[in-house]
DNA sequence: CTTTGCACCTGTTGGC
DNA sequence: TGCCAACAGGTGCAAA
């Protein structure tokens, strides 16, 4: 479910309720997430004040004086703030009980998400240290993308979804960005010129910015930190619109598979 | 090093 | 109406 806009929406929803609060207890109901929830997470957070809630790629970082909790929502995860005594459902795997009488609850039916702990600020963690730039930062520009694409035979869609190149571009927004840039998703990355590279960078920034402003995309079960759904779905240009008319030219949108992921594009607008 | 395909897991959907 | 295969927002890792 969550791509970068959803994670950022979640961060903005929960940060005001967590920042400066102390964690009274950590309840692990199901430790079998993508990796086992480590005892160090419980030990590190319990009794500790959360100093800041940050985001790097699709990870949420809860910063404390003792170390940093890393949370990832995988495909189906969500975080909500609830009253601490709210009964837990089947997929409510983790609670951070706060000194406010509320708790931050991680729900994740497919358990592809993660809750990890690291000493330090988290950026040195093996999962984060090799990541590419944030898509909305100045570090992600045409120079960077053009260099990353040079000599690559990989489909451009797969390349922009590679977190070593740029983080936060998931399956929905990859299709959306390529439509905006007028680039065929299966074009070899190395065969895209400088000018179209610039267009693609701008398209990615635009799509992600719009989606964050709309509070993310709701497909099935996404809810932000405040429990409200996002509204970007109604603005999707190609994703999930197989056979429906292109909003620009009316040609039916096509669906193909690229790198084992569904890909949507307009055969007329994208070359 | 690059590219491909799989694995993890549960719930929903669409076609017969 | 009911069943079951196909598919779903991510991403690390093994194998080619």
Characterization of the model:
It is a single chain. 26% of the residues lie in helices and 20% in strands. The two termini are 28 Å apart. The strands form 3 sheets. A 4-stranded antiparallel β-sheet has the order 1-6-7-5, with helices on one face. A 4-stranded antiparallel β-sheet has the order 2-3-4-8, covered by helices on one side. It has a two-stranded antiparallel ribbon with strand order 9-10. α1 packs across α7, α4 crosses α7 and α6 crosses α7. The protein is built from 7 helices and 10 strands. The protein has 271 residues and is α+β, with helices and mostly antiparallel strands. The model has no long low-confidence stretch (mean pLDDT 93). The protein binds a DNA duplex (16 and 16 nucleotides) through loops.
Q: Which structural traits does this protein have?
A:
4-stranded antiparallel sheet, DNA-binding, elongated, 271 residues
């Amino acid at each position: 479910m969550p791509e970068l806009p959803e994670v950022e929406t979640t961060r903005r929803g929960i940060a005001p309720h967590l920042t400066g609060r102390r964690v009274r207890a950590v309840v692990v109901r199901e430790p079998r997430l993508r990796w086992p929830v480590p005892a160090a997470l419980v030990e590190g957070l319990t009794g500790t004040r959360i100093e800041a809630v940050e985001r790097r790629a699709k990870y949420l970082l809860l910063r404390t004086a003792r170390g940093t909790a890393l949370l990832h929502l995988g495909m189906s995860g969500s975080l909500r703030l609830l009253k601490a005594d709210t009964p837990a459902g089947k997929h409510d795997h983790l609670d951070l009980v706060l000194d406010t009488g509320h708790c931050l609850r991680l729900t994740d039916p497919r358990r592809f998400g993660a809750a990890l702990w690291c000493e330090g600020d988290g950026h040195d963690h093996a999962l984060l240290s090799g990541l590419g730039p944030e898509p909305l930062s100045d570090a992600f520009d045409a120079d960077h993308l053009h260099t990353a694409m040079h000599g690559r035979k990989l489909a451009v869609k797969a390349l922009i979804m590679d977190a070593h190149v740029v983080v936060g571009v998931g399956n929905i927004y990859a299709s959306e960005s390529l439509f905006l840039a007028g680039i065929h998703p299966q074009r070899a990355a190395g065969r895209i010129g400088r000018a179209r590279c610039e267009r693609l960078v701008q398209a990615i920034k635009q799509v992600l910015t719009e989606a964050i402003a709309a509070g993310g995309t709701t497909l099935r079960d996404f809810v932000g930190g405040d429990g409200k759904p996002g509204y970007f779905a109604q603005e999707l240009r190609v994703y999930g619109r197989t056979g429906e008319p292109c909003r620009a030219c009316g040609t039916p949108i096509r669906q193909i598979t690229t790198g084992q992921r569904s890909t949507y594009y307009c055969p007329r607008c994208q070359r």
